[in-house]
Fold this protein.
Amino acid sequence: MKAKLILLTASIMLASCVSILPKPGPEPDIFRLSEVILPEQIAAMPVVLVELPRTSKILRNNRIAIAQGVQGIAYTAGARWAAPVPQIMAEVLGDSLLATSRLNVVTPQEGVHPRFGLMTEIRHFEIIYDKGPELAPLGRVSIRAKLINRRTRALIAQKQFNANVRANENLLGAIAAAVDEAAHDAGRELGQWAADELAKVESN
């Protein structure tokens, strides 16, 4: 699996008109989430079924969310991710598990029924202008994860992973890079945690 996150830009006004994203300027119109570097040899076992992440309705789409206050969310107009956020993060998480060199991964579409499953919920996948609309924002990604034994339905472990990365500047390319880095930071930490927890199970 190769995670690809593309930001398609046209007009950059927010749909709610509460803030404005920076103009693209000389930046390219399409941004891709960088790919996870996978090892040459993928572990044979244990195999983990990575389910499509759950999330709230406000993130169950390909719109670019900007946090407004404690509970508010605004969207950009004319700017989209190439696929819905849950699909994008499913690819990132699967690749992050593979990148540990200690786990193998299957998806529900493959029809394989391994012993272990990874269930996740995307709590945050957004931009935060925490220092005002003129300064570089944060990219925030937060994921709640559960490892389960799919045969007994027993919970093996659960944990929340949070990543915040500030953009280098208030430009679309830098903002996309901040979300990119936050997504991969959370995914990398989750992958190592999953490998460690399943190693404990396998050793018992």
User: Anything to note?
Assistant: The two ends are 31 Å apart (CA to CA).
